[in-house]
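Good day; I would like, with your permission, to put a structural problem before you. What I wish to show you is a protein chain and, alongside it, a tokenised description of its three-dimensional fold. I would ask you to consider whether the tokens describe a fold that such a sequence might reasonably adopt. You will find the record immediately after this paragraph:
***
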Amino acid sequence: MTSTTQHPQLAAEHADSLIPRVDLFGNPERAIPSISPDGQWLAWLAPVDGVLNLWVCPIELETDDGARPVTTDRNRGIQKYEWAPDSDHLLYPRDEDGDENTHLYAVSVHTGDVRDLTPFDRVMALMVGQDAQITDRVLVALNKNRPELFDVYEIEVATGELTQVLENREFIGFLADSELQVRGAIAPDPEGGRTILVRKGDQWCPVLTVDQPDAQSTEPVGFDRDGRRLLVKTSAGANAARLLWIDLETDEQDVIAEDPVYDVHSVWTDPATKEPLTVSIRRERLHTHAIASEVRDDLDRLAEVDDGDLQIVSADRANTTWIVSYIHADDPTATYVYDRTSGEATLLFHNRPRLAGRLSPVEPFSFTARDGLDIHGYLTFPKGRTENLPTVLLVHGGPPMRDTWELDPQAQWLADRGYLCLKVNFRGSTGYGKDFTVAGQREWGGKMQDDLVDAVEWAVRAGHVDPDKVAIYGGSYGGYAALAGAAFTPDLFRCAIALCAPSNLETLLASMPPHWGPMAAEFYASVGHPSETEFLRSRSPLFHAEKMKIPLLIAQGANDPRVPQSESDQIVSALRSNGVPPEYLLYPDEGHGLVKPANRLSFTAAAERFLAKHLGGHYEPEPA
């Protein structure tokens, strides 16, 4: 990491009582647990010499006694993985310093041998599918023939043998059936809509076509075991996304789960029968409901185990053993092994046990925006304080994402340092139905920004916020919003922090990664068309840099393929020319966001000193 500005040393009051940054932003002790398809192994991520790696343990042993690492990554660490259907290998993606050209690796749980299954330069590998009953191979998509389109390949996991099974000329997504045949696909249209197609013989036949407002919430989930029905999540025909079966012979639709306000979040299906068992809907909190009567007793028993939000994260092939987690906003996530036969749940671990009992309360809130739209969000208060607080408006990325009720290290860090953390699901956020999401189209720097301002003003009226001590902070779209706050409402904020932030919508659109090309129409509908120069410049902080007078901290990954380094470089150059040079942190070994713990820790150390200087909160001194 390189830095172009140094902060003066500040007094660090209450440092002894602060939660150490390493406990919040270092690696979790354990994360992402799962059970092998044969039910014999547990796997999870945990550090080895400070780097996240894959660990395994026979399920009959205590994890502290029988656990061992099977990978030895020394760089960025492993961020996600899944079991291969043979139960002998774990599959995981890995890129180089954040460039997102992910290779797919396989590691043997018995020998620790690691194989790069997709050893191609400047090529991205994406998992397409596997089936618990077909144990020797998986499907993967690669853009090695054309950077903008992904073809589908079959990989023999044990040998690494690669065979192309589909040449792609138009699709942006694929779905395999229970015989591991590519039978489903998603095709975009020039207006930003989507069509789900199913292959019948040599023909691709449309099953569901939606216009642009429904595109983002429409996706195929899976075929049933016989391939006669397709499970789909879509907002077509409703406002909030529903879960439905489509009969592939009659085209009849059968809605099996819906909510009048909130989108269906996820569905859990039986690994063997492919029938949906549970559905989760994220309202203010995550609610998991039984679809199949056979799991109602299981959910009733699990509701007695922990008061967190239940999430079924893994199951064996027989569907007799589940790995379940309980999500908390003010406590670590607790993970259990649940035996469906006995009805017993056994605690495996907490992901960040050192945070237990040390976190701040999180409260959902809502208010009415200036144009009458209902907006929701979350408040994280410093312990014992709710009034006249220095405040940090923490803006989520995307923008097609949403803030949720779960442990957020950033929110807890800010509250621990004495700030109210204000998180807002502004229009354009997902989860609240398509009308809410569509209300954010072409509103970057417009009504989406108004929602953030209205949230601050609501919190001021409620007595929570000291109006003279408000900062805005975010990454990706949230970083753009921080720059926009400094440019468009400079009197509202005392300072701003922007991480991997677009500063010029013209250059952002021009630098999209090639594989985003087929989906460009969806992006243009959200942001604006490249031909609309005047409009894009009116919403780009770079062209309003002369108004940006508040202190800024800007951070960027040098290898970011989504928001290139030039986005930060150009706004930093403009601010320096205007006599208000920001602090600029450039991380040469990062991409879109900060993955390496050392980089997260260095950034948060700089950020909390920056906030302490301008808002007056606490900070943890760096080691001498």
Q: What stands out?
A: Residues 597-615 form the longest helix (19 residues). Confidence is low (pLDDT under 50) at residues 2-13. Residues 244 and 255 are 4 Å apart (CA to CA).
